[in-house]
UniProtKB/TrEMBL annotation:
Catalytic activity: L-aspartyl-tRNA(Asn) + L-glutamine + ATP + H2O = L-asparaginyl-tRNA(Asn) + L-glutamate + ADP + phosphate + 2 H(+); L-glutamyl-tRNA(Gln) + L-glutamine + ATP + H2O = L-glutaminyl-tRNA(Gln) + L-glutamate + ADP + phosphate + H(+)
Keyword terms of this UniProt record: ATP-binding, Ligase, Nucleotide-binding, Protein biosynthesis, Transferase
Gene Ontology MF, one: asparaginyl-tRNA synthase (glutamine-hydrolyzing) activity
Record InterPro entries: Asn/Gln-tRNA_amidoTrfase_suB/E (IPR017959), Asn/Gln-tRNA_Trfase_suB/E_cat (IPR006075), Asn/Gln_amidotransferase (IPR018027), Asn/Gln_tRNA_amidoTrase-B-like (IPR003789), GatB (IPR004413), GatB_C_1 (IPR042114), GatB_Yqey_C_2 (IPR023168), Gln-tRNA_amidoTrfase_suB_CS (IPR017958)
Family that this chain belongs to: Belongs to the GatB/GatE family. GatB subfamily.
Top EC class of this enzyme: ligase
Classification via HAMAP family: GatB (MF_00121)
Keyword Thylakoid attributed: no
Function text: Allows the formation of correctly charged Asn-tRNA(Asn) or Gln-tRNA(Gln) through the transamidation of misacylated Asp-tRNA(Asn) or Glu-tRNA(Gln) in organisms which lack either or both of asparaginyl-tRNA or glutaminyl-tRNA synthetases. The reaction takes place in the presence of glutamine and ATP through an activated phospho-Asp-tRNA(Asn) or phospho-Glu-tRNA(Gln).
UniProt subunit comment: Heterotrimer of A, B and C subunits.
Protein name in UniProt: Aspartyl/glutamyl-tRNA(Asn/Gln) amidotransferase subunit B
């Protein structure tokens, strides 16, 4: 239960949040045409006659888009409707050539489901379930550009007709943090399933944010909808600003108007775009050019069988089977790219080394990538190279200190660790004769400290270990060094 409250002049207020996430479906073609969907193409270079609404053009549903929506619904444990229908939503806007959008109002392809979120990755007791109301498929509109000409607006129809899933949550969230956790988890699931790349900065995932406030336990208040927010940070900021604005309005004796608002990321505030009455005059009716969508049992079975292991199941397996801590398991499964990298590493190294591999990945590699400003996807070290490095430590070829030196060289050069060890003579030595010789030299150079140690100053043992390792340039096997020092010092 969230304890997030806004402290107003008249007491505490609770925030009620629902999100409508628009996720671009992963498909090489649009929802009703064969036009390409690649990001970043020249304006109006990916527009078919169907997308441009030329007379006589008929839409043909893209089965892959329907398949991806069904697989997403299954991943959210949602009800899949074997019969659904496309409707026309009529409104005029310059980037919508048809004068209507094809959507699914009355009979969506996916019904109710749910997502479990963790508010604290280190605490499984912080879990909360957020309900999904529905998922429907619809066309995206084009894009108007107002900064290309002093007196004209230009239109780019590349996105016109691109397939979207609109994933509508129930109003179950009660804080900006819960909303942020929900969007991150939803994006993670979509990426695991492969139904959306989740790249919010490219516009392939964005959210309409519904916010209202009420006194704790009171009925829901009037909500506003902030359109097209395109980052988790901005979603959280929009909620915080809008909730505080509504409290200020209500406490000063005003009323909240149901309206559509925009979020300004530069000023970190929302502003009114247009009023939104309860009744919409979109004149929805079944699209006469499209038959209802009927899903066969075989199609549904194929969709279910194609699903990968999802983040929650993977997290539980990492804890129960691999022995990882809840925090490490949560971090390593949060993004599909991280989980794949880790599993590639284990495939080379063996699952019995999972705990050591996880610790190395999360401390050494993540730390280095953060320092370099790179991600795991473009890491200069491959899972195969990482496995080789960890194996060299496990078999005694490298000490912990030497492995860090080799790792730094790997980051700079991209070389394999074995080649670096051979080339630069960085092997750890367990040669007792060589180590005993260095120990004798260290003791001769520090006769006073030897006497102190033998006189009962046990803490000096660490000094002798350090001096010996330093003299051997970190190449002495620490276990052998410790054993031989204990003998030599008596």
């Amino acid at each position: 239960m969230s304890t997030y409250r806004i402290h107003g002049a008249t007491g505490e207020w609770e925030v009620v949040i629902g999100l409508e996430v628009h996720a671009q479906i992963t498909s090489s073609a649009k929802l009703f045409s064969g036009a390409a969907t690649e990001f970043g193409a020249e304006p109006n270079s990916q527009v078919s006659l169907v997308d441009a609404a030329m007379p006589g053009m008929l839409p043909v549903p893209n089965q892959e888009c329907i398949r991806q929506a069904v697989r997403t619904g299954m991943a959210l444990e949602a009800k899949i409707n074997p019969w659904s229908r496309f409707d026309r939503k009529n409104y005029f806007y310059a980037d919508l050539p048809q004068g209507y959008q094809i959507s699914q109002l009355y009979h969506p392809i996916v019904g109710e489901g749910e997502i479990e979120i963790l508010l604290d990755e280190k605490d499984e007791g912080s879990a909360k379930t957020v309900g999904i109301e529905r998922i429907h498929i619809e066309q995206d509109a084009g894009k108007l550009m107002h900064d290309q000409h002093p007196s004209f607006s230009y239109v780019d129809l590349n996105r016109s007709g691109v397939a979207l899933m609109e994933i509508v949550s129930k109003p179950d969230m009660r804080s900006p943090e819960e909303a942020g956790a929900y969007v991150r988890k939803l994006r993670s699931i979509l990426r695991y399933v492969g139904s959306c790349d989740g790249n919010m900065e490219q516009g392939s995932m964005r959210a309409d944010v519904n916010v209202s406030v009420r006194k704790p336990g009171a009925p829901f208040g009037t909500r506003t909808e902030t359109k097209n927010v395109n980052s988790v940070r901005f979603i959280m900021a929009a909620i915080e600003y809008e909730a505080n604005r509504q409290v200020d309005v209500l406490e000063s004796g005003g009323t909240i108007v149901q309206e559509t608002r925009l979020f300004d990321p530069d000023k970190v505030e929302t502003r009114s775009l247009r009023s939104k009455e309860e009744a919409h005059d979109y004149r929805y009716f079944p699209d006469p050019d499209l038959l209802p969508v009927e899903l066969t049992d075989d199609f549904l079975a194929e969709c279910r069988e194609s699903l990968p292991e999802l983040p929650d199941a993977k997290r539980r397996r990492y804890e129960a089977v691999l022995g990882l801590t809840p925090y490490n398991a949560a971090v390593l499964t949060a993004e599909v790219d991280t989980a794949r990298w880790f599993e590639d590493l284990l495939a080379q190294l063996g699952e019995e080394h999972a705990v050591r591999a996880a610790n190395w990945l999360m401390s050494d590699l993540f730390g280095a990538l953060n320092r370099l400003g790179r991600s795991l996807v473009d890491s200069p070290v491959t899972p195969k190279q990482a496995a080789e490095l960890l194996a060299l430590v496990a078999d005694g070829t490298l000490s912990g200190t030497l492995s860090k030196q080799v790792f730094e060289i790997m980051l700079e050069t991209g070389q394999d660790p074995g080649a670096i060890v051979e080339e630069r003579g960085l092997k750890q030595t367990s040669d007792t004769g060589a180590i005993e010789k260095v120990i004798a030299e260290v003791m001769a150079a520090n006769a006073d400290k030897v006497a102190e140690y033998r006189g009962g100053k046990d803490k000096l043992f660490g000094f002798f270990v350090g001096q010996t390792m330093k003299a051997m340039a970190g190449k002495g096997n620490p276990t052998v060094v410790n054993e031989l020092l204990k003998k030599a010092l008596g």
